[in-house]
Backbone:
C-alpha cells in the first residue's frame, strides 16, 4: 500500500492532477509487484467508462450549459424575486430559491454557481449586501445542485454501487427541501440580527402571478392523468397536455413556466416510466434546445457551438477521472486493501450509527482534497461492503456521501465551487473561504438530519414504489 496510496498522496502534494496521480501510482504498483500484465490497465480503464448510465453524464452537462445560454437563468431569478423577494433578506432568499429551481436542470454545483450564481451575486451587491454575504449564500445554495435531481454524482454512485439511479434521484427530493428550509431559516435569523429588510415590495399580484405559474406547471401532469383516464394513448396525452401548457405560457407570457417544467418533466417522466434516468438526460437536452431555439429564440449557432465544446471539455475531464479511479479502485480491491479496511472498521464498531459518524468525518476530509467523481469511484467499492453488512440502505448512504462531498467543494485546496465564486466575485480565495464558513452551519445541521433520520431520504422512494 506504500506504493499505491503513498505514491498517490505524494503526487497530490506536489500538485499533480488527481487523475494523473491515480494512474501513475497504479502503474508503479503494477510494475513493482507484477500482479497483472500492462494491458490490464487499459482494459480496466475502458471498462470503467463502458457503462450505459454514464451516457447521462455528457447530456446533463450539455443541458446545464444550454440552460445558461437559453436565457433561463434571468427568468428563474425574476420568478424567485416575485415569490420571496418581499421577505427579510429578500435577495438572499431569492438566491436560495433560484438555486433550488436551477438544481432541477443542471445536476452539478459548479453549473449552479457559475450560471445563476453570477446573476445573484451581482444583484445582491447592487442592493447593498456585503460581497462576502452574497458569496456565502451562493456557495451554500449551490450544494443543492447534486442533491435535488437530476444529479451527476448520483449517476456515478448508482453505477458504482449498482443502485437504481431513479431511486437516488427521487431520494434526493426531501433532503433537498430540508436543506432549503435550513438555509432560508439561517437567512431569516441573520436578517433579524443585522437588520436586513425586504428587497421587493409585498405585492399580492406579483406573488399571485408566481403561484399561478407554479399551478400551470403542475397542470401538465394533472392533464396527462385526465387525458389517459378518458382513454387517450400515453403519447397523445403527453402531447396534448404539453400543448395546453405552451398555449397558456404564450397567451399570458409567464416568465418561469417553461424553466419550471424541466424538473417536472424529468422526475415525472422517470417516475411514470416514460424514460430511464439516462434517457431523461437526453430529454433535458431536447427541452433546453426547445427553450433556446424555439420558445425564447435566445440561442445562436455560435453560442450553441460554445456550449457543445464546453460540454466536450468537461465530459472528457470527468470521464478521465472515472477511468483513472477505476483502475485505482480495482487495485485497492485486488490488494485486499478494501477487505483489510472493512475488517478494521468492523473491529472498531458494529454500530451503524458510529460507522456513519466515522464516514461523515472521512468524507468531509476527503472532499477537501479529492474531486467528487474520483472520491465516489474510489471509496464506494471500499465502503459499500461495510454498508451492506451493517444494514444501511445504499440509497441513504449515497445521499450522505454526496452531501459530504458537496460540502467539500466549498473548501480549499480543491473546492471547485470555492474557486468559481472567487473568480465571479473577484475575491481572493482566502476571503471567499471566510465568507463561506458561517453558511456551513445550516449544511451541517441538514447533514445530521439526513444521516440520523434515514426516512428523510427513503420515505419518498418507498411511497412512490421505486424502492422496497
Residues:
Amino acid at each position: 500500500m506504500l506504493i499505491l496510496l503513498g505514491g498517490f498522496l505524494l503526487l497530490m502534494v506536489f500538485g499533480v492532477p488527481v487523475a494523473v496521480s491515480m494512474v501513475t501510482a497504479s502503474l508503479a504498483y503494477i510494475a513493482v509487484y507484477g500482479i497483472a500484465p500492462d494491458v490490464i490497465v487499459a482494459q480496466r480503464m475502458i471498462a470503467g467508462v463502458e457503462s450505459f448510465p454514464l451516457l447521462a453524464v455528457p447530456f446533463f452537462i450539455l443541458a446545464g450549459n444550454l440552460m445558461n445560454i437559453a436565457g433561463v437563468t434571468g427568468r428563474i431569478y425574476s420568478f424567485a424575486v416575485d415569490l420571496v423577494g418581499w421577505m427579510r433578506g429578500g435577495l438572499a432568499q431569492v438566491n436560495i430559491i433560484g438555486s433550488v429551481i436551477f438544481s432541477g436542470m443542471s445536476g452539478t454545483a459548479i453549473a449552479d454557481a457559475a450560471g445563476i450564481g453570477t446573476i445573484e451575486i451581482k444583484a445582491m451587491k447592487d442592493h447593498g449586501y456585503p460581497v462576502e454575504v452574497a458569496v456565502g449564500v451562493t456557495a451554500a445554495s449551490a450544494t443543492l445542485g447534486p442533491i435535488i435531481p437530476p444529479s451527476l454524482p448520483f449517476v456515478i454512485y448508482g453505477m458504482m454501487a449498482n443502485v437504481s439511479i431513479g431511486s437516488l434521484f427521487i431520494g434526493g427530493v426531501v433532503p433537498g427541501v430540508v436543506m432549503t428550509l435550513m438555509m432560508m431559516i439561517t437567512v431569516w435569523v441573520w436578517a433579524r440580527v443585522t437588520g436586513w429588510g425586504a428587497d421587493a415590495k409585498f405585492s399580492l399580484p406579483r406573488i399571485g402571478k408566481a403561484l399561478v405559474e407554479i399551478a400551470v406547471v403542475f397542470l401538465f401532469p394533472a392533464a396527462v392523468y385526465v387525458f389517459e383516464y378518458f382513454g387517450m394513448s400515453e403519447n397523445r396525452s403527453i402531447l396534448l397536455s404539453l400543448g395546453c401548457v405552451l398555449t397558456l405560457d404564450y397567451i399570458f407570457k409567464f416568465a418561469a413556466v417553461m424553466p419550471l417544467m424541466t424538473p417536472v418533466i424529468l422526475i415525472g417522466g422517470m417516475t411514470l416510466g416514460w424514460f430511464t434516468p439516462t434517457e431523461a438526460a437526453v430529454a433535458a437536452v431536447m427541452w433546453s434546445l426547445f427553450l433556446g431555439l424555439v420558445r425564447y429564440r435566445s440561442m445562436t449557432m455560435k453560442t450553441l457551438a460554445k456550449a457543445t465544446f464546453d460540454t466536450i471539455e468537461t465530459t472528457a475531464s470527468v470521464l478521465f477521472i472515472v477511468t483513472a479511479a477505476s483502475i485505482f479502485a480495482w487495485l485497492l480491491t485486488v490488494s485486499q486493501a478494501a477487505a483489510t479496511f472493512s475488517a478494521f472498521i468492523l473491529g472498531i464498531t458494529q454500530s451503524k450509527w458510529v460507522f456513519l459518524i466515522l464516514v461523515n468525518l472521512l468524507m468531509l476530509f476527503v472532499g477537501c482534497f479529492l474531486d467528487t467523481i474520483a472520491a465516489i469511484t474510489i471509496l464506494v467499492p471500499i465502503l459499500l461492503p461495510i454498508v451492506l453488512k451493517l444494514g444501511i440502505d445504499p440509497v441513504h448512504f449515497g445521499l450522505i456521501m454526496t452531501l459530504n462531498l458537496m460540502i467539500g467543494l466549498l473548501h480549499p485546496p480543491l473546492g471547485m465551487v470555492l474557486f468559481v465564486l472567487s473568480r465571479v466575485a473577484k475575491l481572493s480565495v482566502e476571503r471567499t473561504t471566510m465568507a463561506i464558513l458561517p453558511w456551513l452551519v445550516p449544511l451541517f445541521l441538514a447533514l445530521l438530519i439526513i444521516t440520523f433520520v434515514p426516512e428523510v431520504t427513503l420515505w419518498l422512494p418507498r411511497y412512490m414504489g421505486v424502492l422496497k
User: Anything to note?
Assistant: The two ends are 39 Å apart (CA to CA). Residues 36-202+256-463 form one domain.
